[in-house]
Amino acid sequence: MHERLLPASPNWYCSRCSDVNRSGVLGFGAKNTVYLLKVTAASAAVLGELNGHTERVSGFAFCQHEGQEHICASSSDDKTVKIWDIEQKAVLAEHSAHQNTITSLHWSPVEKGLVVSGDEKGIVVCFWLGRNDTHSFFPEPRTIFCLACSPHNENHVAIGYKDGMIALIDISKKGEVVHRLRGHDEEIHALAWCPEPKEEDLYTPRPVDSTDASNGLSEIEGGGYIASGSRDQTVRIWSTARGKGVMTLKLPFLKRRGAGMDPGVKERLWLTVHWPKGRPSQVVSSCFGGELVAWDLTKSGKQKWTLLGSTSDCQNHSRIVFNMSSLCVGDREILISTSMDREIKCWDLASLECCWTLPTLGGFVYSMSFSPVGTGCLALGVGDNMIRVWNTMSIHNQYDTRTYWQSIKSKVTALAWHPAKEGSLAFGTDDGKVGIYEAYSNKPPQISSTYHRRTVYSLDWGPPIPPLSFGGSGDKPSYSLYSCGGEGVIFQHDPWKLSGEASNIDKLICDTNNIKHKLSPHTDLSWKSDGKVLAIGNEDGSIEVYGAPSLKLLGSVQQHHKIINTLRWHHQHSDQPELHCLLASGSSNALIYIHDLRSAIENPSENPVLVTEAFRSLSGHTNKITSLAWSPHHDARLVTVCYDGTAQVWDVLKEEPVCNYRGHSGRLLCVQWSPVDPDLIWTGGDDFTIQEWAVSKQEHVRPPKSRRRVELEKKKVPQKKAKKKKKTTAGKGGLKTEESESPMVEEEKGGSGVDEVQSDDDGEDEDRKSTNISAVAPSTGFSKEASMDRCLPEKIQNGGKSYLQVIKKEVKEEKKREKPELSLKKRKPRSMLPLSTSMDHRPKEELQQDCLTLAAVRHAHGQSVNCVPGAGEHIQLGLFTDREALCRMFQEEEDSHVEAGHYDSVTYLRLWKGDLIGALHMATEKGELTDHLLSLAPMAGYQVWSRTVEAYVKQLCMQEQFIKAASHLVSIHKIYEAISLLKAHQFYREAIALAKARLQPDDPVLKDIYVSWAAVLEKDGHYTTAAKCYLAADSSFDAAKVIAKKGDVMSLKTAANLAKLAGESDLSHSLSLRCAKEFMLSQDWLEAQDILRTQGTLLGHRLVLCVSELLTQRLSHTGVVSWSSALSHAWSKPTEEAFLPAVQRVWQSEFGLDSADLDQVKVLHQQLRAIENPPVTTSTPIKQLLSHVALDVALSVASQLLDDWGSVMEELLRAVTRGFEVGHFSLMDEMCQLLLPQGMDSVELYKKRLQQGDERSLVVSQSLEAFICYQLMYKDWWRHSFRSTAAADGIKQTNGSQTPVENGDARDETETLSRSEASDVEAAIRSEGFWTVLLSEPHGNLQATQRAIRDIQSRVAVLVQHHSRPHEPQPSLGTQPHTHSTDLTSETDTPEGPGDMENKQRSSVADSESFPALVAQVAERQKKLADIPDHVKKYPFPDVAECCIVLLYMDKHFGVVPQHLCEAATGLLAKYGTTGSLRKAWQRFAL
User: Fold this and answer.
1) CA distance to 280, 304, 929, 944, 969, per residue, from 950 (Å)
2) Cα–Cα distance, 19 to 337 (Å, whole number)
3) Mind listing the pLDDT tens digit for each residue in 443-465?
4) Which of 634, 595, 594 is nearest to 618 (CA)?
5) What are the b/e assignments for 284-309, b being 16+ CB within 10 Å?
């Protein structure tokens, strides 16, 4: 039926919504429809549609078995799965087994009748087409995102879940999970099986060993690799035979020209994968910004992936890709991809180049316009916020389109090419925007500064009119742009100056034609091509014709009775001049009128011509006319489009239809006749398509009859009066349903049944919730139904029932509908005097008797009358006699109102009587007080007014109107009560405002409110506002504390500055230190110094921070510090200068420390001493450990400036031993080299400066020397171990691993030593003094005693634990097997393990020793410990027994220790190494 067609866009965010069969037919879901395309390597052509789903299509798959390529399956959000025959375009079978939204679908490549689908709740449904049977499985309680049936095993299905897990299930075993593949962190977007089943043939470098592969294949028949794409930016290859991943492919970040996308923006990523048939080593995946990447699984590194379409950037998709499918066409293998950019692309997998691109549409086609200058350039205004310019004359590419989206941001509802300027395209949008695009440039459009308040319905170019036409010819444009909007206004825009204000042409029309009344809202306009006449259509159905440039009214057409939707003048190049002035118009009454305005235009009269008869009338359409176009190739040949979904070609002069096109599946919105081919017409509609069709190829001549007309013809009803009465009733009741529709409701009513928008991405498409192109027009606006709004279905138009049912029911409802106006009137208010009023509705005789009774009363003249006016049966006479009677009537009326509960009426009656107090009392008692009554209360006196206010306040509080209640309390000067009321109900802002306005500044109530509100805010986490409250209450300390409560650095910094401003110096210091510590931990040294610089008394902390920064920078090159410090000072960069002199230099140059000013140095030293320096543990973080070391170094430098060399050595010892105490040997080693660069010589220099007789300092120096020797000892040991290990490596290796070296990795340590350093270490080791320092007998005695005490204490603990559980069975006391070790290992490495050994030890201790004996041993050891000198116990020292064992080990293995030193070490071990573990360790070397 059609020549060319642009289809609707494929649906977004679906794992498999498109597929291609062996015959080259591509199917994809778009909205609730499946489109079918015939694809080749050269082009694509639309074959048809599959219609049947009522909601969005979520999955589509072909049957890939030979002979059944025409069978396919689709799933939808309507929770159904349908099986289709694409040749018949009919449903073969369907099922509704799912109870939740279906998310994935696949047709089994092995079992030809099996269709598998999964939903968002994790249910998997298998449907067998042959036997029409379904089975449901629930393998995992997770949301399914995708699934894929195995091409190698008919029972295996891979399922990808939202949480990143992949499950391989066996449907023959009731959905049993065979493997759970874990590795992805986020949702699985796609799964693709390798076309080859044998895993061992896939990859050249084996990712896993062959043994594992063979085992897996033997256990699981029919394995195969599977590829998965996930939102976590990775593609993973899995082995289904082994159940594990074998390869991970990380997406490359591709910097594309013009439109790169950040790979960190995961929510914009959809990673689909496809494994082409016949290419077992190649996988194709999508990337971040629409690129496609081909992965070669046999390669590594950057050679692994290749970008498709890399030769030209315009070949790639510009947005993310959702689906891919491939097929072989002849000898070429092609790949089809669908994307968010609304394009379908075809790729050649051999050359990786794009073969063709098919644009698609993501919204209604609202407007079309052929360029009068660029032949064949067709502009499309679409509801997906984009303009497309289609070069319909292109020879190489039938679908050569360019897309424009910049600055549009709304549905494009109107288009108009400039009549003379090439490429200049005006557009109007749903939000009232008017702009001009230069189609052949890359510049953004010019936007008019004047917006319509509603949708822009039409645009046209015409000659300028006042005020734009004023001025010389060079000062004004030759054409103006005119726009008509939904609010009924036509603006004239200056295309040279769109930033200027546009003019409303109504003012010129009124001035020229002396019109005083308000003009009818305009709905469309059309300039005659010669620019002399303007036709304007109006909301009331009238058409007005004006002459340019003054817009003098030439004539008015009063033919249509509904809103004018479209106007078009006949072209001017006809051979018949009488046709030049034909004006075609279409409205909502389904008729097209052609008017001949030649006499009014060529022979204008002073009075406008009124036209009431049409030149020609064209009938046949059954719904609203939306657009029309004259043929530029024929005379009086017209094409019209309508909401009935058809396009009709007419011979206007003969009033005959020529042909009818029915290729669209929805309503038509726009039409254009081809400017080059007289047989071609273009139409667009709300089915998201634009179609090109030939007039000569259409089989239909007239439009189809409406469904309603067909039903009425079949079921004619004889009750003609009832039918006529229905029409009359509709007229009386107001507008007809059709005329009262909301404007432009595209997706709210009828139509295709789906939203125009298909995407879940808020920034990429149109809004689902509000799909109106313009707001619903109230009484001041109008609705242009023709181009945008949907006709209501019949049931809606007739109140929910069919037309026939309504007619049959009319007779029954005749009485109810006789006077419909009564239901529209306002309800009459309740009478104040209901009893007396009701008496006026009695029979006429009784009313006449009342007149006689009243006359008797009025003329009684004191005589007794048997009547009491205003009471009883004569209550109605109370209005016509004296006041006493009126009061009696009021009393009875009041009683009646009280009984009925109408207390407000009682109040008003009492007010009328003058009983103000009574009225207030009644209202107060019943809770009916109002502002009006309260305003009357002062008339009764101050006391009454005050009581009334208090009562009204209580009433307002019951109604939770606390602000109003407080305001009334203020009116009677109860300020404190009002404040208390507000505060009690947590209206703190209002309470503070009232208190500050009416109370004294020092009133304690104000402070109480601030404090109370601050407490509430602090509890809720609003710390900043709480701090403001504390500041207002003069509690600066609390303000600073509450700001610091959040704990982040900015809050701490703010709190410190606040405390400083408030004079809270101690708090400011504390917060500044906390803030500086946080900055230091984050390695932001600049900010840390800045925050401390504001505190003048924190110089000591600044210096410690300085040392810490210097220390971190020095250690960053050694491996101790593994983090980077980008934000550091220039002076902290490492230099060749020694560390301690560098610290002094920086102190003096950067911190202004004068070393000659001893008073300043002493103060500084005291500050440093006051800084907390707790002991460290093995769990202390390295950054915190370095800060402790920095404090020790700072103290040593300060002591050095004071010439206190004993303290210098003591602080240096503490800095060196920090690493020793936590077991961080590398830190201890580096600190020795930094602080004592010359080793033992550095210590000797310090010793020379000590005072004579300073024993404490000599002990400190001895400990320093010992630690220097300690780290040198281990360095020598590792150096020798490395040599021996390297030699052993040359002979043999055991299991691919080196022989272990005790206490460290010899390779790592010795590689850092240069040859000169190694020789220095070896020389030191061989010296006599080196080992003499380490083999200190006093320290060995101390350490042995401490070990003995700890051992006895552990035995006491075991004994106490044993006796605390007397009822437990005693452990066996069998002999403990003993295994000798040839290495330096612990005795606990026995077959039973440490736990069994410990239990046996506890048992033996409990049985062999008593508690008094152990206590006596502890006392003995404590006495021995007390005899050891204090200076030996005070300072740390390396473990003497450990040093002795290392010495013996080195002598045994390397022979580098003199014999007498070995004997001395053996003697110390024999004397002090008596514990079990030590004894076994050293006896192996002593034997």
Assistant:
1) 88, 85, 11, 10, 7
2) 10
3) 899 999 999 999 999 999 999 99
4) 594
5) bbbbbbbbbbbbebeeeeeebbbbbb
